[in-house]
Amino acid sequence: MLYRLDLTQSWAFTPCSMAGIAKEINNQILEVTFQMNEKNTVDAQFGKDFSAMLGDAEKDSGIRGLIVRGGNGFFSNGFEPNSFVGTTKEEIEAVIGPAFRICGQVMKLPFPVAMVLNGHAMGYGAILSLYADFRYMQSKQARFGFPEINIGLPIPSAPALMLQDIAGRALTRDMILGKALKADQALQAGIVDAVFDDEETMMDRARKDISSLSKFARSTVRMNREMMYKRYKDSIPAAIEYDIELASTAIMAPAGQEGLGALKDGRRPDFSSVD
Hints:
The chain is α/β, with parallel strands linked by helices.
């Protein structure tokens, strides 16, 4: 049954944060924790800061892996609705543009990436995680899905393509129509690699899987990641740019404004008079 979700050793530098994104390096692994707000929703500042953080890591030859996790019971609950209600198309693109392009950055990093879904991964949270090499999910109180249709928006084409390759077309169809998966269902579908009861066990597994690749040359790992995602080299960047334009147009449309306004107000949207 599918569920519908209602709206070690530190070195290099000490922990710090930008836009609620904490980071530290443990044994050559960059560990990032989202702690932007109560639900780890994403705004324009997140896109700027996380992109810069990834860019710095890519140029640092001492970093051999990336682990991303959430906080407050949410990996990420998607975009911040306040960024989209009553704003201009340019302001909307300033939020979604950097966030979507970050996905392309993650795919091109020269080291392995793990996402620790220690809470709900909905919307953008689910999208971002698809670009990782490893995904782990908390067994309880966590859902994985794309609720966009519930707020009058389409799922972006880039993650829809990747999800079909991972989970198949039928399940992708159900998920883009608003279904959310529990951890055991995500595991069965091949979306996550393992399910754990507690966060520390998830982190231990992520560190182990990433560290196991540190014995290889960074250049070799980079080339193997390139080969792994070669079929997406041209299609995903093009799809991301298409998705930015489509999403900003859809958000500005009546259905998008009604859905996001309802989300912001804590009510159910009414699409009865919206085309």
